[in-house]
Structure to design on (156 residues):
């Protein structure tokens, strides 16, 4: 496992990551997700060109450095909310959620279509958009039943 420290200002944006040789994948649906953890620290996840999911976290001894390290997983899309609620979609349309640093598979979007994008609302609600040929369905995760609910067709 390699660890790198970024030296730049405190802004963490996709442009910043590209400029400091932490390349976010140009083909991933959402290659970068940032959030504030329970300790009030800025963190991020990035999908690199090889599909590896990497964790970026503030360097604890610096006000401007960032550490990056692979977490042994590959992803296609990632999304996070400021509550620290982090979700990932893999290439097989499996949906994963991070719980205290451990990734749990929450299931699959039950559709023959292509998973287009995922998002998480500020309240932690998970959303997924899937569909072919400009007919897209919006899915949400129901924590009570542990299933993904198709909320219907969304006009794009």
């Amino acid at each position: 496992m390699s660890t790198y420290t970024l030296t730049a200002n405190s802004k963490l944006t996709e442009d910043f990551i590209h400029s400091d040789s932490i390349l976010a994948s140009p083909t991933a649906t959402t290659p970068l997700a940032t959030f504030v953890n329970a300790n009030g620290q800025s963190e991020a996840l990035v999908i690199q060109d090889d599909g590896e999911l990497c964790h970026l976290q503030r360097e604890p001894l610096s006000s401007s450095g960032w550490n990056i390290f692979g977490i042994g997983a590959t992803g296609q899309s990632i999304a996070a909310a400021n509550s620290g609620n982090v979700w990932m979609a893999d290439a097989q349309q499996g949906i994963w959620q991070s719980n205290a640093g451990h990734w749990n598979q929450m299931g699959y979007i039950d559709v023959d279509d292509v998973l287009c994008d995922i998002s998480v609302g500020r309240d932690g609600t998970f959303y997924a958009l899937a569909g072919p040929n400009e007919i897209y369905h919006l899915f949400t995760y129901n924590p009570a039943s542990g299933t993904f609910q198709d909320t219907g067709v969304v006009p794009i």
